[in-house]
């Protein structure tokens, strides 16, 4: 039996951290679909055609340590706007969503395109300023010399691309619950997300251990 949770939102909204925490709370498998596009973007930077990179992608390529850089993020946003690339990665994501025991997928179009029938859909947002501050802190901690102004500019540019692309633009599903994390710390955001999921979980599924 499967139970699918779709968590979407813009860059640095907190959806990745929330998704991992929700998956741990319920014992579900987790897939950060953004890593798929980052992996394709990384290969683009290496000179590989985007479609070829998407068609030959393997789980081994999803190494966060080499994919969490500004350059790869920029390339990922560009390849994600290519319809053929998105189509090539569609089956991979949908198969993951049907895993027995439950699955959490986070990205930009999970609730609208990848898993429109997901049992729970969350759309995580935060102001551009707060998201830039979060990303800037992460990048500096990882040793990247980048200014807050540069990160804010990048966040806004990615928002424009993600929301403006013709194929699968970033937008909330009509039946998604919006979770605004602007004024929340991570513990508050996770607690709210877990509560939203638990409210829709069938009685036969186990509850979080802390409940």
What does this structure look like?
With 211 residues, the chain is of the alpha/beta class. The chain has a single domain, classed as P-loop containing nucleotide triphosphate hydrolases (Rossmann fold, 3-Layer(aba) Sandwich), CATH 3.40.50. Helix content is 51%, strand content 11%. It has a 5-stranded parallel sheet, sandwiched between helices. Helix 2 packs across helix 5 and helix 8 (128-141) packs across helix 9 (148-164). 44% of the residues are buried.
Topology:
Layout: E1 4-8, H1 15-26, E2 29-32, H2 34-45, H3 50-55, H4 64-67, H5 70-79, H6 83-97, E3 103-107, H7 110-114, E4 120-125, H8 128-141, H9 148-164, E5 177-180, H10 186-198
Parallel strand pairs: 1-3, 1-4, 2-3, 4-5
Helix pairs in contact: 1-10, 2-5, 8-9
